[in-house]
Write a structure and sequence with these properties.
alpha/beta, Nucleotidyltransferase, domain 5, 6-stranded mixed β-sheet, two-stranded antiparallel ribbon, 8 strands, about 45% helix, globular
Length: about 260
């Protein structure tokens, strides 16, 4: 015996099946980010700083060579019996037209206050904004920062690494250059040398002292260093043995 079904039975079933499938469909949008943007998102926690640096990346896209003047500023503030320190950083991309609105960046930087830390921090942020596969000339008035970066590779065993001040920043600088294949040249300039671009970087660093943007530095883990030392949720970015000795001595004095 055969049963004949009206054609509407087939069309109705198909309609129901399509409606059911539609309920499971989801629109997925995948956006490919550049290596510059990916590095910034990986190492910078502050979303506003991320946004500003990524915006600069877009402006510098296609540049094969850059001259960037950097400067850091450190001030000591006294509030009653307490002493506090603040660090500001600022950099500017030099161009042939000194009257043109140049690309620049400024912010504060957190923890382990020193003039050298500010100088290293400003170099790091400049390199984060630089295009991959580019030649970058960094102009800095800090010989200590320049020598710290240049000499770090020869001390890259675990023992010496944890003897180094501002280890995390130097690690980030080297990692950024390696990841983005940046050819970095560090050039020493004299402080207060009446250089137009150096003076602008100095002004930006001072403005950075009162910026709402606060740069926090994370250390890099590697196959040989899977954990990094911290104290009260803060990265220990000074020679580790010295830090432990001072902390223990202060603990004994307080007992």
């Amino acid at each position: 015996m055969s049963v004949e079904l009206p054609i509407s039975a087939y069309t109705e079933s198909k309609k129901l099946l399509l409606e059911k499938e539609e309920g499971y469909r989801r629109k997925v949008e995948i956006r490919a980010v550049s290596i510059e943007e990916a590095v910034i998102q990986r190492v910078i926690k502050n979303k506003e700083i991320q946004s500003k640096l990524i915006n600069i990346v877009e402006k510098l896209k296609g540049k094969r060579e850059l001259d960037i003047y950097t400067d850091g500023s450190l001030v000591v503030e006294h509030k009653g019996n307490r002493e506090g320190k603040k660090m500001g950083i600022g950099w500017i991309v030099a161009s042939n037209d000194s009257n043109k609105n140049s690309i620049s960046f400024k912010s504060r930087i957190a923890d382990w206050s020193s003039s050298t830390r500010a100088e290293l921090g400003v170099i790091w942020t400049a390199l984060l904004a630089a295009p991959s596969e580019s030649k970058v000339r960094i102009y800095s008035d800090s010989n200590v920062a320049i020598e710290g970066i240049q000499g770090f590779k020869s001390r890259m065993n675990i023992r010496n690494m944890f003897k180094t001040k501002n280890r995390s920043l130097i690690n980030q600088i080297i990692d950024c250059c390696r990841t983005k294949n940046i050819d970095l040249e560090l050039i020493k300039v004299k402080s207060y040398s009446m250089n137009h671009w150096n003076d602008k970087a100095d002004k930006l660093a001072k403005e950075g002292l009162i910026s709402d943007l606060l740069l926090e530095v994370q250390d890099i883990t590697t196959s040989s260093i899977r954990v990094v030392p911290t104290w009260r949720n803060k990265l220990i970015d000074s020679p580790l043995r010295t830090f432990v000795n001072i902390t223990m001595a202060m603990s004994y004095e307080c007992e």
